[in-house]
Specification:
6 helices
């Protein structure tokens, strides 16, 4: 009987969670101002100010107003986010997108930073290993009495005592 109640509890909890997620998605999908805000922050203004379309505050910007009205019209027409982004990229070029796409050659922009980091990490590891191997080899070399005498002579000649000067 207790296991039946536990099973019922988990089923009802899962149903409540699915209902909450569905309501959240439904509210977000129907709110055109939220879509406008999201999409305008995924695109760049083309006036050259290097700001997101939704954040462009460039004084006298002629591009952002036109682009925002195009975006509003596309949302009202019922276009999907991908269709809107694709149409803006086709019209203004790929530089209108704030982040590169995740297909084709644009995928390099996502992979390159990680590849460079991995290569730098590997190079650092190899360099440290080489340095540590060189140290252990130097320590393993037999003592050379001539070099030891020369080092001692240099130490005595450069020693200045306690006068603290040159």
């Amino acid at each position: 009987m207790a296991s039946l109640q536990r099973g019922s509890f988990w089923i009802k909890s899962a149903q409540a969670m699915l209902l909450a997620v569905a309501v959240c998605f439904w509210l977000g999908a129907s709110n055109s101002s939220a879509r406008f805000n999201d999409l305008s922050h995924r695109m760049m203004c083309t006036c050259g100010c290097a700001q997101l379309l939704g954040e462009c505050n460039h004084v006298g910007c002629t591009e952002s107003g036109r682009e925002r009205s195009e975006l509003s019209a596309a949302i009202e027409a019922g276009n999907t986010d991908q269709q809107i982004l694709a149409s803006f990229a086709a019209k203004y070029g790929a530089t209108v997108l704030a982040a590169p796409r995740t297909q084709g050659f644009d995928l390099v922009a996502w992979i390159a930073p990680f590849a460079v980091f991995a290569a730098a990490l590997l190079g650092t590891i190899l360099l440290v290993r080489r340095w540590s191997i060189g140290r252990t080899q130097a320590a393993a070399q037999p003592a050379n009495p001539e070099m030891d005498a020369l080092r001692e002579k240099i130490r005595r000649e450069t020693e200045s005592g306690n006068d603290g000067g040159f």
